[in-house]
């Protein structure tokens, strides 16, 4: 816990320095990134008096901290686990790439608007979320009053976590939950995502206090992953396997793979 507190202090200091530098070099006519956008909202004078969209200056560091901590780590960890599964199950990788080639072709890159037309890509992402459960517990929440849940008494101001890993591997919810099988999320016809089953997967929390960045994270994982698989093929050296044993932390990481290989699928063209 001491190490964790020390890390957070150093990270907050780093972010404070970044935000200060952005303030010094801020140009309203040249918005460079999300930090500039937040500063613009903070400095905006034309916000209506009855709206709550203006951001207090002292909150900007906290917002940037949330974006780094809750956004970038989860998306990059999800993408990293995706690549581990793809090299472990090359037939699944081939199916996704066939879907990409048939739906998008090779003249352009995937777009966000393609998501609904790529069901197998989508069910792979769902199964990656479920099987890896790389966010095994939600961030801590607190009870605001004494309550009883399924016969269990929980006092006010008690720290509460949602065990997402258990839900994602519950034999009452899933057939053969330890098996990696994206097809479990396909409709009976195999042409679209079974949204009812997809909603059972817990990765962004539960209830009205769940992660507000969930839609953005899902879009990002889809767009980055589909673009990577559209352009590249991933594998490991002959005779080698990746170690899928998770390293425990706030998010589950995998061990570094020294045998990863990447090659271009087809000659690069100038694309829009």
Task: Tell me what you see in this structure.
By secondary structure, this protein is mostly helical. 43% of the residues lie in helices and 9% in strands. The chain has a two-stranded antiparallel sheet. A two-stranded antiparallel sheet has the order 2-3. A two-stranded antiparallel ribbon has the order 5-8. α3 packs across α8. It is globular, with a radius of gyration of 22 Å. The mean pLDDT is 89.
Task: Describe the structure concisely for a colleague.
The protein has 272 residues and is mostly helical. It contains 8 helices and 8 strands; from the N terminus they run αααααββββαααββββ. The chain is globular, with a radius of gyration of 22 Å.
Keywords:
mainly alpha; 8 helices; 2 domains; 8 strands; two-stranded antiparallel sheet; Cytochrome p450; 272 residues; 9% strand
The largest sheet is:
2 strands, antiparallel
Which radius of gyration do the C-alpha atoms yield?
22 Å
**Helix-strand topology string:** HHHHHEEEEHHHEEEE
Strand order of the largest sheet: 1-4
The CATH superfamily label of the largest domain reads Cytochrome P450
CATH topology name of the largest domain, in short, is Cytochrome p450
Known CATH architecture of the largest domain: Orthogonal Bundle
Count of β-strands: 8
Low-confidence stretches: none
Shape: globular
Instruction: Please report which band the strand proportion falls in: under 5%, 5-15%, 15-25%, 25-35%, 35-45% or over 45%.
Output: 5-15%
CATH class of the largest domain: Mainly Alpha
Terminal Cα span: 48 Å
**Helix/strand class:** mainly alpha
**Average pLDDT score:** 89
Multimerization state = single chain
Report the total helices. Answer: 8
Tally the structural domains. 2
What portion of residues is helical? 40-55%
């Amino acid at each position: 816990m001491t190490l964790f507190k020390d890390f957070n202090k150093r990270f907050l200091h780093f972010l404070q320095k970044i935000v200060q530098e952005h303030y010094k070099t801020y140009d309203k006519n040249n918005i460079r990134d999300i930090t500039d956008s937040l500063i613009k909202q903070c400095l905006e004078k034309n916000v209506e008096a009855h709206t709550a969209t203006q951001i207090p200056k002292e909150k900007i560091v906290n917002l940037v901290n949330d974006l780094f901590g809750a956004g970038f780590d989860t998306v990059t960890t999800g993408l990293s686990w995706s690549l581990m599964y793809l090299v472990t199950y090359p037939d699944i990788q081939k199916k996704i790439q066939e879907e990409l080639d048939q739906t998008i072709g090779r003249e352009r890159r995937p777009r966000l608007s393609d998501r609904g037309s790529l069901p197998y890509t989508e069910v792979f992402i769902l199964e990656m979320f479920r099987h890896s459960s790389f966010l095994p517990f939600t961030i801590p929440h607190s009870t605001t009053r004494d309550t009883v849940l399924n016969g269990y008494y929980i006092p006010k101001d008690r720290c509460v976590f949602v065990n997402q890993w258990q839900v994602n591997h519950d034999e009452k919810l899933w057939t053969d939950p330890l098996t990696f099988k994206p097809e479990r999320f396909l409709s009976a016809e195999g042409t679209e995502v079974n949204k009812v089953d997809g909603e059972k997967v817990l990765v962004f929390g539960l209830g009205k206090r769940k992660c507000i960045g969930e839609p953005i994270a899902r879009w990002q994982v889809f767009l980055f992953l589909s673009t990577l698989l559209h352009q590249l093929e991933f594998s490991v050296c002959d005779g080698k396997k990746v170690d899928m044993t998770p390293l425990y932390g706030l998010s589950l990481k995998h061990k570094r793979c020294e045998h990863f290989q990447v090659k271009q699928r087809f000659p690069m063209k100038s694309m829009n």
